[in-house]
């Protein structure tokens, strides 16, 4: 029972990290790509 609690907490922690990186990519990578697309002279 104790091991089950540890595993479930670990899975929740992993899902939280994955969701955090997804949200971070959406909020940080998307504006950067948009700004790069709006500047055609820069590589």
Describe what you observe in this structure.
With 43 residues, the protein is mainly α. Helix content is 86%, strand content 0%. The chain has 1 helix and no strands. The protein has one helix spanning 2-38. The radius of gyration is 18 Å and the shape is rod-shaped. The N and C termini lie far apart (55 Å).
- N- and C-termini, Cα separation: 55 Å
Give the overall shape: rod-shaped
Q: How is the quaternary structure best described?
A: single chain
| Low-pLDDT residue spans | none
Order of helices and strands: H
Largest sheet: none
Helix content: over 70%
Sum up the structure in keywords:
43 residues; mainly alpha; rod-shaped
Topology of this protein?
Blueprint: H1 2-38
Short overview:
This protein is an all-alpha fold and 43 residues long. It has one helix and no strands.
């Amino acid at each position: 029972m104790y091991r089950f609690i540890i595993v479930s907490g670990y899975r929740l922690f992993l899902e939280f990290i994955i969701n955090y990186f997804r949200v971070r990519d959406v909020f940080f990578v998307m504006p950067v790509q948009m700004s790069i697309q709006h500047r055609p002279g820069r590589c």
